[in-house]
Amino acid sequence: MAAISSYPYDIVIQDNDAWIGTDSVNRKTKQYTAEAVANYLNINGKVSVGGQMVYSFSSVPLSGNGTFSLPSGGGSSAYSAITSLKVSILEKSGQNVVAFVSYLVGSEILISAQDEVSSFGHYGVTSYSVDPADNGYYVLELSYIGGNGSVTASKLYDIVDFVKTNSAEVEAVSGGLGVDITGTTKQPVVNMDYSGSDNFIEIATEITSVDTGIYSPELLVSKSNPSEPVSEVKKIKISNITLEKLGQPTTNLSFNNNRLTNLSLPVDLNDAVNKQYVLNTVGGYVSSIGNGPGIKVYGSTTQPTVQVEFLGLNNYIQKASTITSIDASEIPFISVERSTVSTSFGAGLVSKIKLNEVAIDKLGAPVASLSMGSQKITNLGTPTLGSDAATKTYVDSKGTVTSITEATGIDISPNPLITTGTIGLNYFTYVTSTPYGSLTAASTDEIPISRPGSPPRVYKTSLANIPMSSLTAVKSYIDSAVVGSLIYQGGYNASTNTPDLTTSPNSILKGWTYTVTVDGTFLGEQLRVGDVLIAESNDPSSIADWTTVQNNIDLASATQVGIGNVLAGEAVDVTYSAGSATVSVEDSTASNKGAVIVAGGTNISVAYVNGTATVTNTYTSPASSASGTISAGQTSATVTHNFGSTNVVVETTKANGDQVYCDVNKTTNTVVVSINSGASQGSAVNIKVYKII
Hints:
By secondary structure, the chain is mainly β. The chain is built from 8 helices and 39 strands. The chain starts with 17 loop residues before the first strand and ends with a strand. The model has no long low-confidence stretch (mean pLDDT 80).
């Protein structure tokens, strides 16, 4: 190997560059890449970077020292979605980080990928506590501030204490006299404190007077001028605040024996007066004012109040002499109190006026009939309203009535009315005539009523004055008179039950009628568009309380209920009477199918159950066979059968079944069987007699 100094320098180091070294375990010579050395230094913290901790992100929680993971696991997550991490108390180099991370609570950290500077998350540390599942891990609660990208399983990440330069914290801000501090230490809010126990107003030294020769004190004011920031606090000299900007006094204002100077002349009645106005107007001082007839004086002698006394014992009305008539040669005056301000008199002042100058329309309306004392009312105007008084000329101009024609609601007797007669209201006519508009009755509305008497008279009364018993009687009469009438209420949606016709009570009245607009089921019954529902009682609650009128019944089919017609067919007769069909079954004949009745006969019985006929043969036949034996050693035997007939068959056999030929003599009730050879058999011969039917 040449001297090291003989090899050229490589000033551009790459990840795969390598150099020679010795393995500390087996002392063998090996080569090491630059990337491997860098990873070793980063992972094991051999290059000192204050506050740096190295971890790998694991997809499985609690995966060993130097790992962190999502609480529920997962191989990837955006930095912005991370709010909590499970972190080993030992980082990759084996250092215990608990004390350091606990110190960072309330501060900020940066989690960044070692191999990608743009993959990072910036967080505020809200808490750091032991993982209840394993005390070798802590739960790190975070609040996301900013970042980019996502964490990926198995990649290495640096976790460092981190604060952006533009978000450096304010160490501390304290309040002072009149100043309150709110918010965080990093972003405090400073407010002027006007009401606190330590505000600058309460702390200020109290003064009792202001020496304007030395200084003019200033006040802090909050301006609300739209051209300036609302509620901005500014200062102003007290001498620059004019009195009209202050509020009105709420009690008497004392000048403490000082004068109010530079006062202008008064204009309105409530204006303060200056000395010059008093001298020009009064000209002197009142020392004393005494009462007189009809005059009452109140107040002090310097500021008296003089009033006319109408009610006192010494008032001028009582002192006046009583007169019974007015001399036409003179017009008397009367005293009046003015209620409005005029050019000559103010409101409330008493003035005099001639009696004939008081217009009659200025007097109150009469509250009783007014007698004219047999005098005329002259110079009367032409009437315009129906309640106006009419002049003789107006009445005479209307002429004499020669004929009056009846109109709707009016009865005339005699007809035509000439100069005398009777005009009456025809209630039947006017009630049944077309009403004027559509009205809604109110309790104050009036209706005419006819009262018995001589002659009968018509009066009016309000609806509220009609006794309920009378209204009930009227309702009962109407209800009885309109039984069966239908009152159409509109359409009915049977699919949604709109309006609600099925819930009781529902205020539905008998006779209310609805037309079905949408198909549906109504109280268990199918309704179709066009069907009509009629209420048969008030507050109907079941299908029995309604009549359903079908509109669109389909023709009946094997599966459809509908309109059908019954036709006659084979073995079936159909007849109609008054819309009803009578179906009957035809009797069966030799040429026509029909109804058949199975009848019983001799030795035959018929029974019916549920339309099924059961036929039974009741004949009990007599015995159809008889038997006998020719005993061994015998040659003949007689068998009595009682068949009453010789129409029989005789069979003779041995016990083994062999046939034995015999002679047979028949009578109506017996047979005689004899062995042909006449010789007896060594064994018995069985005889069997069968009746032939």
